[in-house]
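Hi W.,

Here's what went into the run:
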Amino acid sequence: MGNYQARKIEQKWQKVWKATGLHKVDLSDSGKKYYSLVMFPYPSGDKLHVGHWYNFGPADSWARYMRMRGRNVFEPMGFDSFGLPAENYAIKTGVHPRESTAKNVSYMVGQLSEMGAMYDWDKAVTTSDLSYYKWTQWVFLQLYKRELAYKKNAPVNWCPSCQTVLANEQAQDGTCERCKSEVEHKDLSQWFFKIRDYAESLLDHSDLDWPEKTKAMQKNWIGKSMGIDISYDVEGVSDKISVYTTRPDTNFGATFVVVAPESECVKKNSDKFEDKDAIAAYIHEAGKKTDIERIAEGRKKTGVFTGLHALNPLTDKKMPIYVSDFVLAHVGTGCVVGVPGSDIRDFEFAREKELEIIRVVVGSDGDESEIIKPEQVQEEEGKMINSEFLDGMDIHKATEAIMDHMEEKGWGKRVTNYKLRDWLISRQRYWGAPIPIVYCEKCGEVPVPEEDLPVELPMDIEFKLKGDGKSPLYHSESFRNCKCPTCGGDAEREVDTMDTFMCSSWYFLRYPCSKMTDKPFDKDVLDKWLPVDMYIGGPEHACMHLLYARFVTMALHDMGHIGFKEPFKRLVHQGMVTKDGAKMSKSKGNVVSPDEFVEKYGSDVFRMYLMFMGPFTDGGDWNDKGITGIARFVERFWSVVNGEEKVSDNNLLTKNLHKLIKRITEDIEKMHFNTAVAALMEFINFVMKNGIDKPAKKVMVQLIEPLAPHLAEECWEILGEKCNIVDSEWPSFDAKLIIDDRVKIGVQVNGKIRGEIEISKDAKQDEVVKMAQELPNIQKYLLEGKVVKEIYVPGKIVGFVIK
RNA sequence: GCCCAGGUGGCGGAAUUGGUAGACGCGCUGGAUUCAAAAUCCAGUUCUGGCUAACAGAGUGCGGGUUCAAUUCCCGCCCUGGGCACCA
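Here's what came out:
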């Protein structure tokens, strides 16, 4: 026999599997279909790191388990290959993104092949391939046709020195990553998708087997609220000012109005402001801050008085109007009414500007005094005071009453608001799918006809930053200049590319149809194979990617392109693998490659070690200290399979084997791979003492198949089986065989364990109590007082309460 | 700041319709084997006291509470991680 030659055996089976097409899926047979998907990787210069393995290994184990349960499993893989890092690399080194991406992809394909997963490479997609992004552009056109795409001005991070747009990542701490200049905001005309139109549909998770926390995060992200838009007259100005509030009940306490620096209201009325220079300077400064900074509670509030006043019709009070950066233009109407007695940020602002603070809600402490402490602001329950006809009502009733009142008077209108913003897809970058729009002087904005797709990304691009603020594609004359599809006259192409989230919002629809050239996908095929049965990926995608993918799927459904509304039936998030407590990234220099471990221990050991680290959904900090434990286990497993077949206790073997089947089955169902490995270790420890027979060996080998597929395949062959083990039937257990006749239970006195007894599983309470009482150590305690209660939880615990 | 998770031995973790906390593995200690080492095998291993015992006390981030009994349920904190819309 000898030691287990992991590398040799793994390469042998990978070759066989490839040659026999074991992992190719017949998509015409959808009867027992199972679409098992992982979020596809970005082909970065770091290649695959241990985090990918942590994710992909168990995902493949799951797919293998489902295949052994008789499902026709489709497990595709691909690359999300457009994006910023390849472009930055090009700017630095001059290497074309197409080249560096192709290199990274081919290296990663090699790494993934060594894993031995069941990927059907015939169906692979690479989003930067012409044959893929052609259809990303097609998806854009569908959304455009449906009037879900539109253009408007929106701010970008702008480096005044480099004269270029920066990603958030390049603008951390408000300075440019390259030159350290202070980052400013600049408005550009950009494309958006109306994801807000789908806010209600996206809030409906009722048919989704998703983690509760993910649903909660999406719900909070969408942020539905019911409130009222109130219009106030502004003294000396013809236009009214409109504010959105969810707490109109507090409006008798309104003492000022605040408008966002970038709001329409500021733009429209700037000529009427008192100190125009001060306000212009303030707006400029606000542009340098991030939203998170601006809205943080506890931060010192700043602002400039406009000289204008809004009139509160409830109180006839003149409310001064301020410009302040703690209000954001894209939230609600970009204007808020200041109620410092009931909102903590308004409270902070009022203190700063010495504005009137009125108590209108009495909270649980019953305090009605005029002076309000910060902790009394923002009461979630309470009743109204100082609010005329609302006085005495609880805040919820008052909210309804005042909204009725305001609507009757014509001062306001009930509205539903969402925090969700429309999806900004324009990117002023090269390495992305061009937006298929043409601008013609005569015809205006014209979508590229579907038959003219793809709009091909040009190669004649110089990556060095031009410093003229234009998108890279602007500089390709051959790309930019074109003929109008409608009138044939001279026209210019849109030079922005699409957000890469656009590529990943539909790739799962392309996999089953990846080779089609005349259409993005076939409705019949997709209606059979989708939704995805299991989708595995990181929780960091809870709000963005997963909402975008749902939105695109819903929109395509509503246009009749596909017959299902939701893309992902079941969702599981793997945990994140960190290194020294931090997310692995090139900038931190803490990326750990799986290659040396695969080389040294083999794919199976490495995969099982990652599983054994802890629960799949938890992740953890990477270290390689325990990997020898798994290597030892594999050696022992190997020697048991190859060892003699002699058993000292047959009944015990059967019982433990059936217990093992139960545990592994349940653990895999719950994705608790760590305890599945532990259970196998316990079983091996047991059979090393007790011995094993051939049928038990076979079951044991089947049970390890999802976790260590190469090892299992080799053992399966050694045990004389002909078929591939992944096509053997998952073992079942007999519940009757795993019942323990005798169990050890603890004996408690006043809740503390004082002894242990062994009882028969159907022993009666009297019997058990009597046995417990007879223990010398228990007698000692029983003599100390009077027994007031005897407790017996069958099979679990026996206890006495004494006084 | 806001939203969502998580905190258990020297380390990774196990155990939750409340019922013997620490399975499994790493590491460590002792032993066997060996000229020696590696590898392997056997035994021990939460901490404190105690005779390497019986047993007792403490113990699941911190402070309270409910209960015969709390890692598990409730209230209030602290810390760490993820996300916050141009990294993907």
